[in-house]
Every structure is written in C-alpha cells, then in structure tokens.
C-alpha cells in the first residue's frame, strides 16, 4: 500500500506532506470543517486530482494529520493498494429511527466472502450509533464470521449544528457511507482507549428508549446532569461533553462503554445520547484529566501497533495507514493542549505509519484488537491498515 497525505488551507490551496503517489489512487479519505465541505467543492477538487479513486470524507471541528491538529484545515489521504479491492456505498440517514435500516443497506451493498474490513463514516447529528452497527452486523456477520468494523460519526466541533458525510462529489447532512476493503493480503488492527475517571455513585438506568435517556434511579436524567454541572448546565448539550456517562450491564463493569450527549429536551427532561442506554444497566458520571487522556491516547496507538505485528499476522510491506478518531469531548477539555494527545499518538505508532484523522461525535472500534466493534464516546481509537508481503 502507498499513501499520499495532503492538507488544504483556504488561503493557500493543497500542499503535499511527503511524496506523491507514483500511480493512480484507489481511495481518498478526507476530513475538514463543516463550512469548508458544505458546497462539495473540496470533494470536486479531490476528484479532479484523483479521478479514478473512490472519494469519501466527513466533517469535523478539528483534523489530525501526523502529529498536528488544526481547526481550519482540510486533510486528505490518497491510497493505492497493491493487493486489495475497494468498494463503497451510501444510505440515507435523516432520523435516529433510520439507523438500523441504514446499516442494513450498507452491509448488504458491501457483503462478500473476501470482505476483510469495513470503514464507516456516518452523520453524527441524530444517528443512533448502536443501531447503525447492529444493522451492519445483520448483513455482514454469519455463523463463525464477524466482519471487523471501524470508523466514526462526523463532527461539528462544539456547535452541534450540522454534520456532513461525502461519497464521490455528493456531500450531505443526512447520509452514512461505508467503505469495504477486500482481500487476504489486507492487514489491520484497532484499539480504543479513554482515560476518563468515574465519580459519584453508580446509578441505574430506570427509563430509556433506545438512545433517549429518561430516568436514572427513577428521577429525570437531565435533573442529575444539571445538579452536577451547576452554572455550566446553561451550556448543555455542549458542556455535557466534559461529563460523559459510563454504562455497563448488570454485574459486568468490565464490559462498560462510554456514552456522550447529542441533544437535550428541557421540557421532557430527557437526554439523547450517541448510542443506546439499555434499561437496567448501571451508569456513572465521568470526568477527564489531561494527563490521563494523553496516557489513554498513547495506549491506544501502542496496543494497535503491537497487534498489527503479533503472529499470526504476516509482515507488512509498503506504507501503513493510521486512522485516528478521537472524541470532540477530549478536544474541548484539552483545548490548546490537544497537541499533546496528537504527538504521543504519532510517537507510539509503528515506525513509518502515516496518520490522518478527525475529532468525532462517536468512535467505532473494538476496545481491544480482535474484539467486537462497539460505539464509543470520549475515546481515542486507532485503526492501522496495511498489506502483507505475501
């Protein structure tokens, strides 16, 4: 596999970050600010540069390229595979209720015996990420077979207004896109780590409808958040990013996942999260500290790298892509020190890995290499993609 990285400043146009591809790209992956992507001009520019490639991307408040983070740049990775076939599909996703059907449509379009990995980019405003994944598994998985899934939910920084996803020259706020990578020579590994700490008493989800949380311990969920946030409650849902909710099935805290808020309803006293909150599960508020988040980012990159090199994986040849998806909540908490997270992630990657990524409204990855994909919030997820020598 061969990778060409580039970035685009509005005032300067595109600039290469390294050498250019010596043959046409098959897949271009891009991320950038909502305002820069909304009219489709970026997608058209990339199509003109790489007319034979599948062009996919999504919006974000902050991009990652190598060890750099930026709020005003578009970044892109053009990829050329030696032994891997690429396909892509899109499906409409305008309401949370459409999430499972969207996943089923994408899975059906991509399923094949040699499908090795699926990369998902979904709009992040109203999607139920848990149901989107369930729909994909409905069509991709079978007896003794679970297709690995990674990716993320498009972001819009702390604005929570519009998120965009693009396939080809079509960029829209109401769709999800999935990219299928096919072949036995594809090598990949993924890991997701948070670094947040729990505080306050564990509570019980006593009222929930999918990803809409109504009650914790028999009381309105929004009341709990407002009590803990105090004056910061006026900034909901954005300020809730700093206080995510960890949930786990009864008696199994080791299976916990983190959920973050997408929207609130002050009249109904409910909160809408990026994924399901099953009734009867335990829940506990979380908060972050800079050092712990940075340590989590380093652990995610290191763990993925170790898994990529661990037998029975074969030695890789050519470039290695590192797709880094971090949560907007981490960005808001760390502020200008977000560069620390990007730098330790880049330093912990395998030698020569080329990193690109974005800050999302939800991360799709296994918690540990080889595990089942889940929707995470407030984590940093690293997916390494390469090809084997033989």
Automatic annotation (TrEMBL):
Biological source species: Sphaerotilus microaerophilus
Pfam families xref list: FIST (PF08495), FIST_C (PF10442)
Protein name, UniProt field: FIST N domain protein
PANTHER family for this protein: BLR0328 PROTEIN (PTHR40252)
Source organism superkingdom: Bacteria
Positions of the FIST C-domain domain: 221-367
Residue ranges of domain FIST in the record: 23-220
């Amino acid at each position: 596999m061969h990778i060409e990285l580039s970035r685009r400043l509005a005032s300067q146009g595109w600039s290469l970050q390294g050498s250019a591809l010596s043959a046409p790209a098959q897949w271009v992956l891009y991320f950038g600010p909502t305002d820069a992507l909304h009219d489709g001009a970026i997608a058209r520019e990339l199509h003109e540069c790489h007319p034979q490639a599948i062009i996919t991307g999504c919006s974000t408040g902050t991009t990652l390229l190598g060890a750099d983070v930026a709020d005003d740049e578009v970044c892109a990775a053009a990829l050329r595979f030696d032994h891997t076939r690429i396909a892509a599909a899109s499906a409409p996703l305008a309401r949370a209720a459409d999430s499972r059907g969207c996943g089923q449509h994408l899975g059906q379009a991509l399923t094949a015996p040699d499908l090795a990995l699926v990369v998902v980019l979904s709009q992040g405003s109203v999607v139920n990420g848990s149901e989107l994944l369930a729909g994909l598994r409905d069509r991709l998985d079978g007896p003794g077979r679970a297709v690995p899934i990674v990716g993320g939910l498009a972001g819009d920084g702390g604005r929570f207004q519009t998120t965009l996803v693009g396939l080809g020259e079509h960029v829209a706020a109401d769709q999800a896109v999935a990219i299928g990578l096919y072949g036995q020579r594809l090598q990949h590994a993924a890991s997701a780590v948070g670094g947040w700490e729990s505080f306050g008493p564990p509570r019980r989800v006593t009222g929930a409808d999918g990803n809409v949380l109504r009650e914790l311990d028999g009381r309105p969920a929004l009341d709990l958040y407002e009590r803990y946030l105090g004056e910061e409650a006026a900034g909901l849902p954005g300020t809730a990013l700093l206080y995510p909710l960890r949930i786990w099935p009864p008696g199994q805290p080791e299976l916990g996942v983190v959920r973050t808020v997408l929207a609130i309803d002050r009249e109904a006293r409910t909160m809408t999260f990026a994924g399901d909150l099953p009734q009867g599960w335990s829940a506990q508020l979380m908060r972050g500290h800079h050092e712990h988040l940075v340590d989590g980012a380093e652990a995610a990159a290191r763990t993925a790298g170790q898994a990529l090199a661990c037998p029975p994986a074969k030695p890789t040849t050519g470039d290695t892509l590192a797709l880094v998806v971090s949560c907007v909540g981490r960005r808001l908490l760390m502020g200008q020190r977000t560069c620390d997270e990007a730098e330790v992630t880049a330093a912990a990657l395998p030698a020569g890995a080329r990193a690109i990524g974005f800050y999302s409204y939800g991360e799709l990855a296994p918690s540990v290499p080889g595990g089942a994909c889940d929707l995470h919030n407030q984590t940093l997820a690293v997916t390494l993609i390469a090809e084997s020598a033989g």
